[in-house]
Amino acid sequence: MAKIKFGIVGLGRIGKIHLDNLLQMDELEVVAVADLTVLDSPSLLKRLAIKGIDLVTTSYETMINSKTLDAVVICTPNESHADYIEIAAKAGIHIFCEKPLDLNLNRVVEVLSVVKDSGVKLMLGFNRRFDKEFIKIHDLVEEGEVGTPHLVKITSRDPGAPPISYIKKSGGLFLDMTIHDFDMARYIVGKEVTEVYAKGAVLVDKKIGEAGDIDTAIVILTYEDQSMAIIDNSREAKYGYDQRIEVFGSKGMVQSNNNFHDTHQLFTSEGVKTSLPLNFFLERYADAYKNELQNFLRCLISGDSPPVNGHDGLISLKIGLAALKSYKEERPVRIDEI
Ligand SMILES: NC(=O)c1ccc[n+]([C@@H]2O[C@H](COP(=O)([O-])OP(=O)(O)OC[C@H]3O[C@@H](n4cnc5c(N)ncnc54)[C@H](O)[C@@H]3O)[C@@H](O)[C@H]2O)c1
Question: Distance, CA 263 to ligand 1 centroid (Å)?
Fold first, then answer.
């Protein structure tokens, strides 16, 4: 069978990870990369040449118009996602795009309609759905091991805040960071959210407040059956990346712990010490990033629908916008208000 021809746009933090993972997959061939600054990096250019990637360009349009691609992986900053999805869909190219689809709801609806008309597959990079700890919780809940879920607790704290320049363009904590947790809240119990109540504060860095954002938040979600989820976020956890989920139900409770550098425990007269949790998303979710692209590839080969689609992106954006409205107006906001 001919190899599926992939292109990738955006070779920053996440793009490099996706490129490395694509290069390890036998059923595909990376034939093109596009990045605004790729030509300024001799070491990266050398690596791409060694891997035999034919087209290296600063222009996404050049890559798409080369007519060599079956699929594209979009890893550029948020503001280009909608346009780049639209361009690829119109060219009949399957799309894996990093989250979010866009920060504007109308634009997302518009783009999803173009994707639907084109018939290409679109998968969104909600990588946490491909983390083995969270898959285990999801599967146990689905198998009924905790009975009917009543309460979900999601802790999601970053080890450190991104630069203020990033914060300013990110769409804010709810749309940049909590959006992953909104998706997890739906995925983990398979229920839809009907109402959002969000509180936020600037407790980590006042420059984040000056940039118009918050760095600490609590969000209460109500599901369609009146069960609830609570999400807590911080931009700075001194001990590392804190990613935990718990589901409590009518028959029991299931929880996942953080992943640590190693599992040793040092016992002395002063106490017990362990390693810190893995530091950030690139380490904690290294396997999840591989797993999500393997899933995308499997869908291209089998013709199945992607496990995370445009609708999931749309719903998580709606929950995020409801959270923002709730925080600003200091009241619970129903999703159907958005
Ligand atoms: N799923 C996750 O865990 C996760 C983690 C981090 C980032 N992200 C998402 O991935 C995207 C990229 O984030 P990042 O942290 O890798 O950003 P980054 O700033 O590290 O990298 C962006 C790259 O895109 C290139 N670029 C920018 N505009 C371009 C354009 N118009 N055409 C071609 N290249 C362009 C830049 O040169 C840069 O190399 C964002 O949408 C972000 O939300 C997802």
Answer: 33
Structural domain including 208 reads 128-285+316-337
pTM (two decimals) = 0.95
Structural domains counted in the chain: 2
Q: What are phi and psi of 60, to 5 degrees?
A: -60, -45
**Atom of ligand 1 at shortest distance to CA of 15?**
16
d(C-alpha 123, C-alpha 110), whole Å: 16
Of 253, 244, 228, 257, residue with least CA distance to 145: 253
Do residues 12 and 136 share a domain? no
Regarding whether 321 and 212 lie in a shared domain, the answer is yes
Cβ of 64 closer than 6 Å to ligand 1, yes or no, is no
> Using a 6 Å cutoff on CB, does residue 98 contact ligand 1?
yes
Last residue in a domain, options 120, 150, 167: 120
Q: Which of 8, 20, 21, 36 to mutate to test the pocket of ligand 1 (most atoms within 8 A of CB)?
A: 36
Q: Which of 44, 46, 54 is nearest to 15 (CA)?
A: 44
Last residue of a domain, one of 63, 94, 120: 120
- Cβ–ligand 1 distance for 125 under 6 Å, the answer yes
Detail the DSSP E strand segments found in 68-115: 71-74, 94-97
The protein residue with its alpha carbon nearest to ligand 1, atom 27, reads 76
Tokens 């718990």 -> residue: 246
SS3 73: strand
Q: What's the 7 CA to ligand 1 centre distance in angstroms?
A: 15
Q: What pLDDT, in 10s, does the model give residues 13-61?
A: 999 999 999 999 999 999 999 999 999 999 999 999 999 998 999 999 9
Same domain for 78 and 29? Answer: yes
Same domain, 85 and 188: no
- Mean pLDDT across the chain: 96
